[in-house]
Design goal:
The protein is α/β, with parallel strands linked by helices and 259 residues long. It is built from nine helices and twelve strands. The strands form two sheets. The protein has an eight-stranded parallel barrel, surrounded by seven helices. Strand 8, helix 5 and strand 9 form a beta-alpha-beta unit.
Length: 259
């Protein structure tokens, strides 16, 4: 069965959506992360106005007068849900766009899943879109098409999204991961939610802050008792990763391949 225990032999080194030395959410990025030794590739899915899935970390973009992207994650956005697939694929960044580089800002979901399959990686797919039910069904359809059900974890920062996943897709079908709010310790109640969902991970959004991990110790121990693996979303250096491992964390999202 495609339970999380199928991943037990692997410590999950999850390539964050933006590795600091390469482009974000593109085939180039995922291939680079694969070559660097990450065993899990992360991507983020949104849905366009014409109902197509597209890989992008944020829900929209800010444009200059020439229609080029000048901000990737701002409050003043043209939302992807209001753009067609063709529009999203046609956009490029303005010159000198900081670390993101000048490149097409979005990619095909099929590219992401195929690269995970071809490279033997675990697919860590973040569901971010507002039209959650539609996105979940379309994403799982593609995952099944490529035979990746047992090598996929659907990731979400809202419990409501995982509830939607579990409405039609039970624990024997697909693994899920719940990310606790940024900078907050995980709780035993959140672990209980994971038990109820089944085949579920829980992630601490720590970003290198040890106190967040320290304050999660009781819940980490409880998660171990309940057979719920704990991950961390983290940009920390290798000393922090080693600290996480000692605390019982079974994997982490990272931006620097220094393992």
């Amino acid at each position: 069965l495609p339970r999380w225990s199928r991943f037990q032999s692997e410590f999950l080194r999850i390539a964050y959506s933006a590795i600091w030395v390469d482009k974000i959410n593109t085939a180039t990025h995922w291939l680079f992360a694969s070559d660097m030794g990450f065993n899990v590739l992360k991507g983020d899915v949104e849905i366009t106005s014409d109902g197509e899935l597209i890989m992008c970390h944020d829900p929209g973009f800010t444009f200059d007068e020439n229609g080029r992207i000048i901000a990737y994650n701002s409050s003043n956005k043209t939302l992807i849900v209001d753009m067609t697939y063709a529009e999203c694929r046609s956009k490029v960044y303005a010159e000198n766009p900081s670390r993101y580089g000048q490149y097409c800002p979005v990619a095909d979901v099929d590219d992401f899943i195929k690269i995970c399959k071809d490279k033997g990686k675990i697919c860590f797919l973040t569901i971010r879109a507002t039209n959650t039910a539609s996105v979940v069904e379309k994403a799982i359809e593609k995952i099944k098409y490529y035979g990746m059900e047992s090598r996929t974890i659907l990731n979400a920062v809202q419990a409501s999204i995982i509830d939607v996943i579990r409405e039609n897709h039970d624990a024997d079908e697909i693994a899920v991961n719940f990310v606790a709010p940024e900078g907050q310790a995980i709780t035993t109640a959140q672990v209980d939610n994971c038990v109820a969902w089944g085949n579920a991970f829980i992630s601490i959004w720590a970003d290198g802050v040890t106190t967040v991990i320290d304050n999660s110790e009781t819940a980490i121990a409880y998660a171990k008792q309940k057979d719920v693996p704990v991950l961390a979303a983290v940009n920390g250096e290798i000393s922090f990763w080693n600290y996480l491992i000692k605390k019982g964390v079974m994997g982490y999202q990272i931006t620097k391949p220094n393992f």
